[in-house]
């Protein structure tokens, strides 16, 4: 298959428990601290290697780019239906193993195959395709303003818990057309799932809330994704609706928050982003490319199961053994080595093949807008601790920080009150704190959340991975030198021209269907635009360098 593939006569037979052959653990603080060192060791074993995802849960990890594409693009050899997972069906994996919620079967488009997959995925894809990017940008900007107003006057914040984690949920509530009270309940339920707090109650809250939302939309449909999904020719049942909405919202929140947080970490810590454009700094879109290549929000996933005993890269894999794709390792395959990742979107962060992410373009737009809005509002922001002291959350699948503490000059004017539907910080909401929030606790459940909600109503078993200690936000001398001034003017760039993600097959069409009174999809109201807000941060100190980025986007 490639230069590193073993000859057929040297095929290795992999059967039985890999633990006796030194399976490499992908859990614990050591892997979380430096996963790329682990990937380098695994590559020494060949394009595929045995790993332990959690105590007692074994799989084969694909670290080679070409081998990964072979698995992702060969549904005739590798299936997605987790009911093929022999170790689970035969009782060799306990039902409460921490990786089961991420890998067990759900009746949704992520775990289905064949005609069932085509039917469910087409309904989801067609509904996502109807999202207008200008309206989406407005949703993100208003949601961002709601969250920024909450902490702008404090001079410090945890951008993970107070911004990146909450923003995708607020945006989805608007895309779903949730009434405010119902949106608050969905935010509460998904937040509890990600925090690992009473997953059984959170699951019940999410299911009940979505059932109520579906009932409302059946009685009074609107220009929202729930109504579009409901009106699709696939004619989904209410139960199917719940499962598809949960996979869309779950897959678009945990990975989305990691993409936003990891991009912010890079922008605030990497010297390449610290100068003006002439000196070599890169815009936000390029920072997202860098993150998607090197630290994708879902580092290892796309679990497949051989339909029968099969050879992959010189190793024979038995039917029903989990095969996990390492997006992070495949993206950094030495065979692809290049220092020019800017504008190169052949990475596998969105997967590939028939199960590639159908929402990669909206996800990228949400992340870019969230980062730009924050930097516009608080241009003097800097990390509150050295980048090397940031702690990564343990887990085999995600690449996620436990916290992202920052500091900035407090706002000189009172924050503007907003109420975004489903906002946990809305005035009068049960989530609206009465006292200033100190966002960087040394310990706490927020650091331990997993992304099991991406796959449908979850089990009562929360993630077992506990985070490492979060560094305190004490006085730290920031590394680097003074940075040029950024003008206090929010920038509004147009939606950039589409650059195809070359590893996937579907392109996002912002206006793929005719809209109007005669359309079977009905009329779509005009896109709602947001009102520009001035920066709330003011300081006599040298400012961060986002002025050149804003000017570049306006010129573009």
TrEMBL record:
CDD domains: CYP_unk (cd20623). Residues 1-30, 419-556 are annotated as: Disordered. It comes from the Bacteria. Residues 466-478 have a biased composition (Pro residues). Residues 441-465, 532-556 have a biased composition (Low complexity). Belongs to the cytochrome P450 family. This is Cytochrome P450. It comes from Streptomyces orinoci.
């Amino acid at each position: 298959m490639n230069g590193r593939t073993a000859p057929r006569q040297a095929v290795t037979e992999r059967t039985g428990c890999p633990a006796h052959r030194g399976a490499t653990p992908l859990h614990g603080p050591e892997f979380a601290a430096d996963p790329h060192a682990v990937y380098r060791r695994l590559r020494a074993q060949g394009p595929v290697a045995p790993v332990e995802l959690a105590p007692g849960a074994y799989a084969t990890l694909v670290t080679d780019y070409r081998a990964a594409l072979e698995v992702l693009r060969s549904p005739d050899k590798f299936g997605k239906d987790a009911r093929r997972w022999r170790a689970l069906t035969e009782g060799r994996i306990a039902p409460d193993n921490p990786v089961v919620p991420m890998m067990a079967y759900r009746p949704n488009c992520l775990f289905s195959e064949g005609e069932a997959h085509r039917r469910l995925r087409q309904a989801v894809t067609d509904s996502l395709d109807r999202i207008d990017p200008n309206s989406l940008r407005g949703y993100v900007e208003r949601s961002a303003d709601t969250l920024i107003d909450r902490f702008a006057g404090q001079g410090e914040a945890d951008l993970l818990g107070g911004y990146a984690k909450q923003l995708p949920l607020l945006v989805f509530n608007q895309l779903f057309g949730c009434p405010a009270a119902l949106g608050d309940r969905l935010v509460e339920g998904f937040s509890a799932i990600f925090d690992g707090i009473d997953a059984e109650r959170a699951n019940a809250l999410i299911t009940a809330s979505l059932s109520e939302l579906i009932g409302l939309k059946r009685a009074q449909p609107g220009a929202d994704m729930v109504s579009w999904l409901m009106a699709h020719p696939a004619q989904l049942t209410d139960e199917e609706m719940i499962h598809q909405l949960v996979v869309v919202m779950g897959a678009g929140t945990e990975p989305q928050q990691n993409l936003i947080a990891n991009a912010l970490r890079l922008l605030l810590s990497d010297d390449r982003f610290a100068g003006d454009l002439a000196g070599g700094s890169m815009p936000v879109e390029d920072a997202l490319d860098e993150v998607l290549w090197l630290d994708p929000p879902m580092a290892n996933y796309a679990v497949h199961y051989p339909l029968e005993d099969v050879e992959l890269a010189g190793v024979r894999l038995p039917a029903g053994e989990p095969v996990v794709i390492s997006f992070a390792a495949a993206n950094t395959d030495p065979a692809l080595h290049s220092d020019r990742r800017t504008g190169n979107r052949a990475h596998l962060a969105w997967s590939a093949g028939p199960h590639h992410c159908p929402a990669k373009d909206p996800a990228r737009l949400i992340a870019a807008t969230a980062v730009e809005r924050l930097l516009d509002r608080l241009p003097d922001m800097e990390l509150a601790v050295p980048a090397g002291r940031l702690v990564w959350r343990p887990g085999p699948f995600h690449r996620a920080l436990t916290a992202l503490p920052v500091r900035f000059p407090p706002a000189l004017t009172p924050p503007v009150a907003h109420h975004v539907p489903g906002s946990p910080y809305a005035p009068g909401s049960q989530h609206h704190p009465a006292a200033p929030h100190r966002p960087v606790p040394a310990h706490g459940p927020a650091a331990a959340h997993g992304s099991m909600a991406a796959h449908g109503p979850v089990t009562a078993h929360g993630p077992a991975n506990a985070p490492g200690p979060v560094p305190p936000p004490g006085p730290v001398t920031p590394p680097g030198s003074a940075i040029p001034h950024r003008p206090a003017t929010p920038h509004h760039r147009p939606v950039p021209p589409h650059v195809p993600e070359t590893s996937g097959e579907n392109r996002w069409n912002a206006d793929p269907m005719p809209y109007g009174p005669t359309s079977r999809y009905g009329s779509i109201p005009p896109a709602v635009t947001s009102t520009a807000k001035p920066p709330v941060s003011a300081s006599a100190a040298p400012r961060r360098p986002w002025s050149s980025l804003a000017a570049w986007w306006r010129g573009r």
